[in-house]
């Protein structure tokens, strides 16, 4: 894909992350869920502010969307979303591509291939009951990333609520001892509770995803000159 006509420059590739609550209208505590969604938007904009071309916002009542300057930053965004909502409770669609309109501070005022891809991704996720779907414009890139996210989502969907909460505590503290202290149990109890969940492998895979994305797109993490596949 090319940039403005006559320039010969490659079009800058952005990433749109769209997250849509699953069966949100049937939730018993809809008001509380909406508050959590608002809190998630605040958290994402605080943690990833420098990475955002347009901040996250609630777009369709139960859906949030934000525009990232670089595709390599979408994996940690997804991980943050999954600390606020269980992966089987929210569908995340990621689109990669260009923006056809002028950049603004509101994602709802922009259009372009990256938004079309993100919409396709989240709709595919909802129809196929997948936790995360990536649409990049490259079948090869999509196959690799969606295989990885399919594995991660399949593992996480088997976690019980308490296990998910304790993995999130580990994300926060990076120490089983601190997790046990906050949970008010022994370290052995935490280890026993998380046994067979593959939680440590999931966190390793998540940590490697920015490097994998960069490799697949032909650049390095943080690079602004990655060529479109």
List the helices and strands and how they pair.
Layout: E1 14-21, H1 30-47, E2 52-58, E3 63-68, H2 74-84, E4 90-97, H3 113-128, E5 132-135, H4 139-156, H5 161-173, H6 176-183, H7 187-194, H8 199-217
Parallel strand pairs: 4-5
Antiparallel strand pairs: 1-3, 1-4, 2-3
Helix pairs in contact: 1-2, 2-8, 4-8, 5-6, 6-7
Q: What do we call the CATH topology of the domain at 14-137?
A: Alpha-Beta Plaits
Total strand count, please? 5
Using the coordinates above, name the CATH class of the domain at 14-137: Alpha Beta
CATH homologous group name of the domain at 14-137: Nucleotide cyclase, GGDEF domain
Low-confidence stretches: 1-9, 222-229
Going by helix content, strand content and strand pairing, the class is: alpha+beta
| Main sheet: strands, sense, barrel | 5 strands, mixed
């Amino acid at each position: 894909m090319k940039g403005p006509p006559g320039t010969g420059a490659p079009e800058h590739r952005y990433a749109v992350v769209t997250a849509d609550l699953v069966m949100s209208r049937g939730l018993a505590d809809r008001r509380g869920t909406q508050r959590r969604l608002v809190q998630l938007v605040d958290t994402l904009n605080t943690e990833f502010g420098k990475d955002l071309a347009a901040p996250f916002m609630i777009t369709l009542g139960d859906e949030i969307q934000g525009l990232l300057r670089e595709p390599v930053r979408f994996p940690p965004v997804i991980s943050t979303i999954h600390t606020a909502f269980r992966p089987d409770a929210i569908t995340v669609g990621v689109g990669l591509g260009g923006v056809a309109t002028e950049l603004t501070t509101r994602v709802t005022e922009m259009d372009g291939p990256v938004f079309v891809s993100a919409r396709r991704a989240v709709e595919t996720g909802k129809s196929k009951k997948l936790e995360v779907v990536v649409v990049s414009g490259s079948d090869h890139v999509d196959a690799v990333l969606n295989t990885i996210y399919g594995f991660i989502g399949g593992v996480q969907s088997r976690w019980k609520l308490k296990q998910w909460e304790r993995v999130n505590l580990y994300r926060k503290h990076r120490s089983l001892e601190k997790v046990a202290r906050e949970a008010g149990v022994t370290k052995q109890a935490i280890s026993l509770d998380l046994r067979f969940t593959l939680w440590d492998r999931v966190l390793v895979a998540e940590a490697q995803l920015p490097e994998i994305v960069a490799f697949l797109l032909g650049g390095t993490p943080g690079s602004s000159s990655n060529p479109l596949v």
